[in-house]
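Hi all, long-time lurker, first post. I run a small reading group and we've been trying to get comfortable going from sequence to structure in the token notation. Rather than ask abstract questions, I figured I'd post a concrete chain and ask someone more experienced to write out its structure so we can walk through it together at our next meeting. Sequence below, copied exactly:
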Amino acid sequence: MKIAIVEDDINMRKSLEIAMSDYKEFEVKTFKNAKDALKSLDATFDLIITDINMPGMDGIEFVKTLGGKFEVIIMTGNATLQRAIESIHLGVKDFLLKPFDVDTLIAAIKREDKIQKVKKNAAKESKKSDFGGFYGTSKPLEDALKIATKAAKTDATVLLLGQSGVGKEVFASYIHNHSPRAARPFVAINMAAIPDNLIESELFGFEKGAFTDATEAKAGQFELAEGGTLFLDEIGEMPYGVQAKLLRSLQEKEVRRLGSAKGIKTDIRVIAATNANLMQKIKDGSFREDLYYRLNTIPITIPPLSERKDEILAIAQKVLEQNCVKYGFELKRFSEESQERLLAYNWPGNIRELISVVERAVILSDNDEITPHELLLELRSGVNSDKNR
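-- Answer (accepted) --
Happy to help. Here is the structure in token form:
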């Protein structure tokens, strides 16, 4: 691991050089100020350790200049502790309060080293996989992906069907990334997350003065997705009155901002998704039949996680690694019994529920092994049983 130490105090700098020389796994370069460091830093460095109070450019400005290209550990005295805390907002993961002993510094470095190894391994595994964005694979998933891959090569509208939490946005992203539009924007909008009275302006934009609060013109999601893909999640929740305008935009390939008499030509690919029964909504009069058939050019039904058991442990392991990195924990593992419990559970909330369960288990576990007790699946099973009575 190649480390840069930036410290203006010559005694401190030399002390760190001597102490770090005992650790052959670390290659250490020291700099007396931030400007000197910036001249020499390149992609071969894995970690920066810097003081805050330095002449010329202080540690906070130094971190800002690095722009997130390197992981950073801050060294600080009591007088600058508040500034060190501010550095967290810049992405700094750790800081050491002076005076500190060498063991504390080495522990912080090794913690960062382990986190970086997890990240690199995750990146390698992602590159190895042909299932971009998917953490595991199974026969039902592969069958759905075969259809998605064929659809991706075209501009046909795709309708993703399946229970809540099965990964419909991941599928939409997969289709976009494997399409000729991959280099252009992927814009996702959730109909259920936007108040009914704002959906039209959010989708199509508005001109200045179109309504009371329209103090300036704003482009809608259709325009923002120009050349790329617009993902309309929870399409079944779209207000009936807006559906006609969406249908017209899809057929005419143009949108009209609120308050404008002029249409704007668009070149986008639309993917829609829902966990609702649209045919029932059509019967109920809450969803337009003509829009349904326009969106349903290529329907893809995504199976629930209960039918994709082969993916469960792979997804759980990937989420575990991500959360260990996220919360700065040592890398943890699932006990054999925990793995059995994960496989035996029915996952009514699908992948979204699995992600939630694993994140909580990572936080609650006191040791490096996650036990069934920390998964709390018994409690969840009880809740599900109550619902089914």
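A couple of things your group might point at:
The chain is about 45% helix and 15% strand.
The domain at 306-388 is CATH 1.10.8.60 (Helicase, Ruva Protein; domain 3).
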